[in-house]
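Justification of computing resources. Each target in the renewal requires a structure prediction run like the one illustrated here; the chain below, 258 residues long, is used simply to show the kind of job we budget for.
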Amino acid sequence: MVHVEHLRPASAPTAVSSGLAGGSNRAVREWAVVSAGLAPVLLTGAYLVADILQRASDSPVRQTMSAMAGQAGTDRWIMTGGIFLVAGCYLVTAAGLTGVRTSARVLLIVAGLAGIGIAASPEPASGSTPRHLAWTVLGAVTIAVWPAFAARRAPWRPPVLNACGSAAVTTVFVVLLGWLFIETHAGSLLGVVERLTASVQTSWPFIVAVALRRGRTPDVSARHVRGQLRTPRRPGPRCCGPDFGLDESSRMRKRTSR
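Resulting structure tokens:
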């Protein structure tokens, strides 16, 4: 007798495939990809526009973004608004970047809060304030080490999220941060180095989000699905024994004679 479920093997692929599709989409939300992509665009656009509006004596090679957002900056609301928007993008991205570890999402939230703190505590006309410096250091260190925490330990992961890739990116970010620190003490390229470091670092969450979004289903899951979709073996006639090869009438005569 053939069971009813044996006649419907085609219904299983749809259910299992849809489950896998939902699992892959949960790695990152679409709106998180958008917010991560907006962060470097907003930051770069803000400091480029702010550079144009500064006084002729203010050189973008030396002047920092904090100075343009400070009390002595011209139209400082542009740079301040850009920092606020980038911080908001960090917070939104952290909420939707579910494919990375919780520690990475927490660090991205810390970076966003640090950005809000930087924008909310502008530099005075001369010098700086301890609060502004504290928020700046916190944000710079947090986003520099973020790639190391964003690395995935799953059997399948994009190349940019494996241990080697994350370590390489973290090393580059730390080197840029060290260069920036040197420029703050005895350098003539502080503005350029700060803009370069900020643009590169704010781009990395977007790269991670795109890598997770475009990532394919792991091979181990595919093998598991193929195993689930395998058609059950139907019971057939015995292939061995004393009655093998006999027709039904011969079997009946043999059983009667016993």
